[in-house]
Design brief:
Blueprint: H1 29-37, H2 41-53, H3 57-68, H4 82-95
Helix pairs in contact: 1-2, 2-3
Length: about 100
Amino acid sequence: MTSTPQTALPPTPRRELRRARSGAMLGGVSAGLADYTGVDTVLWRVLFVALTLAGGAGIVLYAALWVLTPPVPLAPGEQPRRVDEAVERLSGRLGGTPR
């Protein structure tokens, strides 16, 4: 029996869920989810609106993801928005360590 040598595949980089800074309308949650899953940003936004209209869960879920999901690192020379700074402080208080 002959066997072919198996080549090791290079490890694939692990994708992380992060809030996007580019393409963000509010907190970057939908754009970050779109980058992570490959599903269009508009569909994520429609889902959050639908959940909001169906009882308010969309607002709660979006706010939780906004606070708990780390943002994409800032580009050199880029300044964070004030709302992002506030969310980072809140996230640090909830998690115990600032990011």
